[in-house]
Amino acid sequence: MTIGTKNANNPRKCKQPIDEKSALLLENQSLGEHAGQEINGASFIGAVFNLSTTIIGAGIMSLPATMKVLGLGLGVAMIIFVAILTEASVEMLLRFSRVGKSVTYGGVVGDSFGKVGRVLFQLCILVNNVGILVVYMIIIGDVLSGSSSNGVHHFGVLEGWFGEHWWNGRAFVLFVTTIAVFAPLACLKRIDSLKYTSTLAVALAVVFLVITAGIAIVKLFNGSIDMPRFFPKVTDLTSVWKLFTVVPVLVTAFICHFNVHSIDNELEDISLIQPVVRTSLALCSAVYIMTSFFGFLLFGDSTLDDVLANFDTNLGIPYSSLLNDAVRISYALHLILVFPIIFYPLRLNIDDLLFPSARPLVSDNLRFSLISIILISLTFLGAIFIPSIWDVFQFTGATATVCIAYIFPASIALKDPHGIATKKDKILSIFMIGLAVFSNLLAIYSNANALLVKNAIPNA
């Protein structure tokens, strides 16, 4: 098919499939076949908010706890370092996508490593995204229905307002939230349809940050809190190993690779994707640094794995109860709006894994509904039976997430199926893989050792 004049002058990529909602299934079809069937392109701002919403999820709640481990100096440096490394890995991934004419992350992996590599990637997406969604539900349950840590119960918003009742228990609240909110949002079939909810989600994250910063500054000036540690506490070999436990959390905080292609496919101009990535990473890094600083400043060494759980006590300032509720509710609403952004690539990849030869998912309502129901149910059950977000982060962050963020992009550059990798790409790729494997093996070891010690104490 000959591409018309309109398409020749349009910066929109010709690799755009007829229906970007089913890009995973159509990426191997003829590029020219659908060149004349374009959709309205997504805007730069909409893409920035969608990608930023992908990045700013539950990971932000554990970043103050990473400051407790690393200290402010090393903690801020690590946030900046991981952001730079993420930008480099996304740039390599997109460059190889262009050359291989792949419109999905799975397609790039398949182009380099065949069906086995693609299936492995899709399994990583399953573990990572289900893990992230489980964390979202756990936090929402903590906020609304309360949580328990080290034998201390932290009251949820609904418990504080109405007391303990069956209808504000964790399981029932999550069930109602899933049916009334998550399920309808997850039914949207185009990621650009979520740009308004993504904008609101980022705004709610900023509200959380502003309130937290305001409380911390007031308490700092009235002398009720001190400046937190700048360096980590290193007293023995065990404390050194503990430093590596934050790596999976930091990697999880910046994971966005699985949505980059979906956002890229809907952009009006393909040259915008790199500015979108850089803008989103800069915005999220700034939010992360300020949240980490003010959260750790406010609670110091009492900072919990999920900092939202700290907002259930008297803050020692006027309107403490109101501010506590505002912080927790704003971020719970943020996570509710982020849910469909993470769910979108999960559903597409699982469909391609299970039904690689089926017709496009968007045109099969029965398959679309069944996959959505099964994945949402799996997430709901995970949130009911897994008690801590740190446990999920440590498992998914040290395995599937690090593969998606660094190991797969670096391996693609080293395999270099199209002969475009530079010497710099290969050096950076070896560094990424070496750093990822080394740090995450230490993180797994340290967390496994801590878990064994924790379980052994009650039996001592």
From TrEMBL:
UniProt GO molecular function: L-amino acid transmembrane transporter activity
Bilayer topology: Multi-pass membrane protein
Location, primary (coarse class): membrane
Domain (Amino acid transporter transmembrane) ranges: 42-449
Coiled-coil portions: none
Transmembrane annotation, as ranges: 44-63, 69-88, 119-139, 171-188, 200-221, 241-260, 281-300, 329-346, 366-386, 392-414, 426-445
Keywords per UniProt: Amino-acid transport, Membrane, Transmembrane, Transmembrane helix, Transport
Localization: Membrane
GO cellular component terms, semicolon-separated: organelle membrane
Name of this protein: Amino acid transporter transmembrane domain-containing protein
Organism (species): Ziziphus jujuba var. spinosa
Taxonomic placement: Eukaryota, Viridiplantae, Streptophyta, Embryophyta, Tracheophyta
